[in-house]
Amino acid sequence: EDQVTQSPEALRLQEGESSSLNCSYTVSGLRGLFWYRQDPGKGPEFLFTLYSAGEEKEKERLKATLTKKESFLHITAPKPEDSATYLCAVQAGTNAGKSTFGDGTTLTVKP
Amino acid sequence: DTGVSQNPRHKITKRGQNVTFRCDPISEHNRLYWYRQTLGQGPEFLTYFQNEAQLEKSRLLSDRFSAERPKGSFSTLEIQRTEQGDSAMYLCATAVETGELFFGEGSRLTVL
Fold first, then answer.
1. What strands, in cross-sheet order, belong to the sheet with B65-68?
2. Average pLDDT estimate for B76-90
3. DSSP H helical segments within A33-84, as ranges?
4. Nearest partner of B65 among B51, B42, B50, B44, judged by Cα
5. A35 and chain B in contact, CB less than 8 A
6. Alpha helices in A32-73 (DSSP H)
7. Which residues contact A102 (CB under 8 A, 6 or more apart)?
8. Among candidates B2, B8, B32, which has minimal Cα distance to B20?
9. B103 contacts in A (CB within 8 Å)?
10. Which of A34, B23, B67, B94 is 20 to 30 A (C-alpha) from A70?
């Protein structure tokens, strides 16, 4: 069964203090690894898709990377508006339907 | 607004009552998913439709839960004989073949 583990559960940063979030996964034939951002009381918002080891994607202060066993979401010089829960999900090649999600990392950026 | 729309946004019900949630998808998306999320947890897969066909249903989903997607358009999720453990956010998402999900704002259920 596909499994996704995210760490840390919570991360508190000062504005401008860069850091990384981790997503470890076990899946039978990775079709895609996805990062989402979720604000309180709202549905997750899609950020990135990564398909193969070595791939990287960037958007503003966020950069996602992928290896064969884990993905990292690097946050460079974060701002308070980056505060949110960041979710990682995997989709198996054998099952093009569902995505399996981790429990997320809640990021708080203090001004 | 061309995003995924869910109604109602909030539902409070008494244990034993039936509830129904509706999801109106992005029109070009043929894949529709229902997820459930509780506080501090990631979304948990419930069921998946491609057009009007229900292709997968979670083994964890009790027979009190049923979902439909008539004519491959909007979808409904019904929970019969609600229990307190059903209290959660019910999320609808749609997708195309590339797999990324586009979520609605969710329907929050509170069972008293």
1. B5-7, B19-24, B75-79, B65-68
2. 97
3. none
4. B44
5. no
6. none
7. A4, A5, A6, A23, A87, A88, A89, B42
8. B8
9. 36, 43-45
10. B94
Minimal Cβ distance to B100: which of A41, A49, A103: A49
pLDDT exceeds cutoff 60 at B1 = no
Contact A97 B31 (CB under 8 A): yes
CA distance A20 to A71: 10
The answer to whether B56 contacts chain A (CB < 8 Å) is yes
Please indicate if any CB of chain B lies within 8 Å of the CB of A1. no
pLDDT tens digits, residue range B11-35?
999 999 999 999 999 988 889 999 9
Q: What pLDDT shows up at residue B29?
A: 86
Exposure b/e, A46-75, CB count within 10 A at least 16 = b: bbbbbeeeeeebeeeebbbbbeeebbbbeb
Element (H, E) at A66: strand A62-66
- Joined together, the tokens standing for residue B74 give 């909007």
The per-residue pLDDT for B7 is: 97
